[in-house]
Each structure stands twice: as C-alpha cells, then as structure tokens.
Amino acid sequence: MTGPIAVFVNDRLVRIPGGAPASAAVAAHDPGLGDALTRGEAYLTDGRGIRLSPETVVFSGAILRVVLSARGGREEADAHA
C-alpha cells in the first residue's frame, strides 16, 4: 500500500490507502453503506454509471457512486427474457 489517496464516494471526498479496494472507500464514507454493499443490497458504479466490483482497486480522483438496490442481492433480470 502507498500513502493516502483522495476518492469521491457519492458527493463526498474520502481518503483511503493507495491500493485499497472500492469497498474500503465506501466503508470510509459510510459504514452502513459499506455493510449494504457487503450484503448485496447495494452496488457500485463509476462516475460514468458503469458497474464496478467492490474489489476494484481505486485510484486517486476516482468517482464512485453507491446505488441501493430494491431487489436485495438478486441480479437484474434481462429485459428480453
């Protein structure tokens, strides 16, 4: 791990150790959201809306958004299924 890096979670700046996963940034921002992410009740996207794994290693200046899922931990169904 390297020195601390700045990452944005939702609209807040958090500092986490370099090399840490996105889940660490979420937990630093809000432990309750971190727990929801672990339980599969939330998921992550980057600043463009692309879904990310909680284990993705983040970089300085990364923008993460936490989305609470009304479906719990279930995967979204294919719209054409």
What can you tell me about this protein's structure?
This protein has 81 residues and is an alpha+beta fold. It has one domain (2-68): Roll (Ubiquitin-like (UB roll)), CATH 3.10.20.90. It has 2 helices and 5 strands; from the N terminus they run ββααβββ. It has a 5-stranded mixed sheet with strand order 2-1-5-3-4, covered by helices on one side. Strand 1 and strand 2 (12-18) form a beta hairpin.
Gist?
The chain has 81 residues and is α+β, with helices and mostly antiparallel strands. It contains two helices and five strands, in the order ββααβββ. The protein is globular and about 35 Å long.
Q: Main traits of this protein?
A:
81 residues, alpha+beta, Ubiquitin-like (UB roll), five-stranded mixed beta sheet, 2 helices, 35% strand, disordered C terminus
